[in-house]
Amino acid sequence: MTTGEAPSTWQCALWARLAVLVLAFTTLNSEAQQPAPTRLRIVGGLASVSQYTLHEERFWSRDLARLSGGKYSASIVPFNQAGVPGQEMLNLMRLGVIPFGTALLTQISNEYPELGTPDIAGLNPDMPTMRRVIAAFRPYLEKTLRERHGVELLAVYVYPPQVIFCKRPMKQLSDLAGRRVRVSGGTQADFVRALDAVPVFTEFSELMANMNSENTECAITGAMSGNTLGLHKVTNALYTMPISWGIAAFGANVDAWNALPPDLKDLLKNELPKLEAAVWAESERDTGNGIACNTGAAACTKGTKGAMVEAHPSSNDERRRREIFATSVLTRWVQRCGAVCAQVWDQTVGPAVGIKAPVAQ
Question: Which of 66, 181, 250, 327, by CA, is between 20 and 30 Å from 296?
Fold first, then answer.
């Protein structure tokens, strides 16, 4: 074609196709130069409980992307399905192997006993007390995790209180005398021994088998989790005094946290307190629902209705709980842990509940 000639139809079509290819190449090249969206890897709390399924999982797998306009996202797996030993969670976070993780304080307290301070058995008889205790302990927890373990504390979660399931009738604490009682930790064992009962250390996964083997007469566990296991089918009495709870610290490896984009850190600082509040509220609902389901009440909404007889702790039992805690459980805990734990107690939780630590021997 010479200058001034009109292009033929096939030439116009060729140029149009080339223009489309150039545009597509330019677009792909531009997209390749854009940084990939930040995707966080989260090890969350206990699988199958409402705190995880209704709140943690939803926040990380869906809400984060929505709140950031698709700029940030996350994947999450519960720690007890991730092949992560619970007692090693804090160490793995410190090393950066797990950049964002959830550690149960009762599990990591096997190595760092002072971190178990706010959930010693018999300490928290209700949710208001638990809130005061966590508020008193949180500054120490934040400072210790950051300075000693290289972990930035981002949230504190609570699981429902652990109550007592028994095969035979139980109306008061003294009824436990002589019975074999499933426990999950040292301070629960101390509490049970103070009642002249026999503690039987049993993993949650082995609880039903142990109860069915006649090796255990009673079990301390969560009302809803016990219902999920089927404890209401093999026990008759539900004594609803909270023996202990279950507190988890969600945090990040300091280097991983500092490497986040500033706007993502700001978003998490704003949204994680809301997630924490939702988890605490769910724990309160789960407590009531677990009791309702085990006893067959109409308020049961997501469990299996049983026919257990509920026993509320009396004022006398509340006094006995406090006495056992102060003179037996706390004393033995300090004896095992030493002067460090006594000092931590007196600087944090002790003033909030009005109990001074005994002198370590």
Answer: 181
Which residue segment(s) compose the domain that 218 sits in?
162-245+296-353
Do the domain assignments include residue 33?
A: no
Q: What are phi and psi of 208, to 5 degrees?
A: -65, -40
361 pLDDT tier (thresholds 50, 70, 90)? low
- Answer whether residue 130 is part of any domain: yes
Dist CA 55 CA 34 (whole Å): 32
User: Over 60: is that where the pLDDT of 4 sits?
Assistant: no
Residue 45 CB partners (closer than 8 Å, separation 6+): 51, 52, 56, 78, 79, 102, 157, 159, 248, 250
Q: Is the per-residue pLDDT at 212 higher than 60?
A: yes
Q: Which two tokens stand for residue 121?
A: 């058995």
Task: Give the C-alpha separation, 286 to 301, whole Å.
Answer: 10
Q: Does residue 10 carry a pLDDT above 90?
A: no
Q: Is the pLDDT of residue 17 over 60?
A: no
Please give the Cα distance from 236 to 187 (Å, whole number): 25
Render pLDDT for 159-170 as a digit per residue (tens, 0 to 9): 999 999 999 999
Q: Tally DSSP H helices, then E strands, for the chain.
A: 16, 11
Q: Which helix (H) or strand (E) holds 133?
A: helix 127-149
- Please indicate, yes or no, whether residues 303 and 333 belong to a single structural domain of this protein: yes
Per-residue pLDDT at 104 exceeds 70: yes
- pTM above the 0.70 mark? yes
pLDDT above 70: percentage of residues in the chain: 89
Q: For residue 139, is it within any domain?
A: yes
Report whether 211 contacts 219 (CB < 8 A).
Answer: yes
Query: How far apart, in Å, are the Cα atoms of 270 and each of 52, 146, 158, 258, 311?
Result: 20, 20, 19, 16, 41
Assess contact for 201 and 189: CB atoms under 8 A: yes
Give percent above pLDDT 90 in the chain. Answer: 79
Tokens of residue 25, six digits: 């190449």
CATH of the domain at 132: 3.40.190.170
How many folded domains does the chain comprise? 2
- Give the type of residue at 117: T
Residue 146 shares a structural domain with residue 276? yes
Q: Chain-centre distance of CA 199, in angstroms?
A: 24
What is the DSSP pairing of strand 100-104 with strand 247-253? Answer: antiparallel
Please say if the pLDDT value at position 334 is more than 90: yes
13 within domain boundaries: no
